[in-house]
Amino acid sequence: MKWITRERPKIDRIACPWLIKRFVDKDATFIYVPFEQVIPRAEAEGAIPFDIVDVEYTHYEDQCTFDYIIKKHHIDDPAVLIMAPIVRGADTDRHDLASQAAGLWAISAGLAYNEPDDQALLERGMMLYDALYSWAKYLRHIKHTQQPFEDQLIDIFKKFLQQEKDSRKIPGWAKELKEIIQDQIDTNLNLSLKGLSETLQVHPAYLSREFSKYFDDLSFGDYIRKLRIDKAVQLLTGTGHSLTEIAYLTGFSDQSHFTRIFKKYTGKSPSIYKKELIKK
């Protein structure tokens, strides 16, 4: 069966072909074309379009196309289910979902930058996801070194628990974390809970659990996305930037991802929001 999607793939548009060939149709072939050609070419060649809006194989709510294929084809392989939040986190800029998500995004972006041919990129990407699958199936409990880093973090975690056990005040780490996020939100497009936990010397599990108590009842990922949408609204209101430029300036992986998240938070697409501003 033929499958077709947008050109210049990075995460979902390589992860999905890997999943299809390994668990759905080993003889599947994949076509990458400019966005506006996906539907016409799909109809002409009898191919299945995926990872674009208004088709069956696409994003649903907070899940990506990789998640939909797992659900649609009843894939219950344990290693694939471990991979799912990593792919989702990398593809939707929610690196708090899995510690490996930021690394997957970085490697995928670099791979796409180095390889201009989409079919060659897919071939290399298949090796990447084969490796990730092997890690998930056989190696995920193996540590790279025997350094006592995890024990140190646990000690820090216990220290913070003890210090804040009887306190209802905003803890010092929360104040410091808010300042770091405010300072870096415009310049660091890859803020991650793991990276911040190392900066603060607070265990990432503790940060993840306690974060919403001091940040508007939002998870780390939702809070960062809200700040980026707030910035996007400012850019739409006070600048002449295009939607593509605003998506880049606010840290979204592409305009499609930006549009989806913007609509989720404001109830309107960026283009409609901008048109209504102009009318005013």
UniProtKB/TrEMBL annotation:
The keyword Transcription applies. Gene3D superfamilies: Homeodomain-like (1.10.10.60). It comes from Chitinophaga hostae. SUPFAM superfamilies: Homeodomain-like. This is Chromate resistance protein. Residues 175-276 form the HTH araC/xylS-type domain. Keywords: DNA-binding, Transcription, Transcription regulation. PANTHER family: ARAC-FAMILY TRANSCRIPTIONAL REGULATOR, HTH-TYPE TRANSCRIPTIONAL ACTIVATOR RHAS.
